[in-house]
Amino acid sequence: MATTRGFTGRPRATDLSSRIPPGQHLEKDFPVLSAGPTPRIRIADWTFTLKVGPRPVKRWSWTEFNALPITQITRDIHCVTTWTKLDTVWEGVLVDDILKAAGIEAPTPYVLAHSFDGYSTNVPMQDLAGKAMVALRFDGEPLDSDHGGPARLLVPHLYFWKSAKWLNGLQFTERDEAGFWELRGYHMYGDPWREQRYSGD
Ligand SMILES: Nc1nc2c(c(=O)[nH]1)N[C@H]1C(S)=C(S)[C@@H](COP(=O)(O)O)O[C@H]1N2
Ligand SMILES: [Mo]
Fold first, then answer.
1. Is position 172 within any domain?
2. In this structure, which ligand is nearest to the CA of 139?
3. For residue range 85-112, what is the model confidence (pLDDT) as tens digits?
4. Mean pLDDT across the chain, nearest whole number?
5. Per-residue pLDDT at 5 exceeds 60
6. How open is the CA angle 176-132-174, to the nearest 5 degrees?
7. Would you say the CB of residue 34 lies under 6 angstroms from ligand 1?
8. For the chain, how many structural domains are there in total?
9. What is the residue range of 119's domain?
10. For the range 38-47, what are the long-range contacts, defined as Cβ-Cβ under 8 Å and sequence gap of 24 or more?
11. What tens digit of pLDDT does each residue of 105-144 get?
């Protein structure tokens, strides 16, 4: 074997730093960042609605949604406030599986995620397909309400404000529409590896 680099065992410091985007630092804890108070959502009141423009195409109750295929993923996450957390473990329903269950293919290239607290954020369908989930569990436990429980969007490769907490639906839009933070100066896309923190970055 010509290669000298090990592919097993504990990652070395150099490998770790290659996983931390520019301007970010490593965080061991899991900080809570919310624009307002944590909404308390009763499971009986929880619904998830898939919309095309103004038109609802499918709605699930909590029980129905939990019966969809559940996938576990381990990903690094990056908050625009400069922390990065490695190897976070999530379980939930892949956006691909939500569309499959609704019997539709993405009708437009743009999606707005909507939340119970009125929050919204835009993500291109291309960044949801094969990459994003509606997370129901973190680290083997039901998602804490402070971290977005009962369910949050998880788009791990974009800054964490794209991972809408207290998610109650996804909406396909004709155009790339700005969400809560994007209307207030945050970047429309939010790639941590290109430091797309604010509009104009
Ligand atoms: N519904 C909703 N989702 C939200 C927010 C919010 O205020 N409301 N804050 C966003 C921001 S700015 C960040 S950095 C992450 C923080 O997630 P955490 O509290 O689990 O760390 O959630 C994002 N999702
Ligand atoms: Mo944030």
1. yes
2. 1
3. 999 999 999 999 999 999 999 999 999 9
4. 95
5. no
6. 20
7. yes
8. 1
9. 46-194
10. 38/145, 38/146, 39/116, 39/117, 39/145, 39/166, 40/145, 41/116, 41/145, 41/149, 41/150, 41/166, 43/150, 46/150, 46/151, 46/168, 47/168
11. 999 999 999 999 999 999 999 999 999 999 999 999 999 9
Lowest mean pLDDT, pick from 13-17, 25-29, 30-34, 56-60? 13-17
**Is the C-beta atom of 163 inside 6 A of ligand 1?**
yes
Query: Among all chains, which residue has been given the structure tokens 């993500």?
Result: 123
What's the whole-model pTM score? 0.94
Q: Is 20 in contact with 26 (CB distance < 8 Å)?
A: yes
- Assess if residue 161 is contained within a domain: yes
Strands 110-115 and 141-142: unpaired
**CATH (domain of 179):** 3.90.420.10
Q: Is 135 in the pocket of ligand 1 (CB under 6 A)?
A: no
Cα gap 162→200, rounded to integer Å: 17
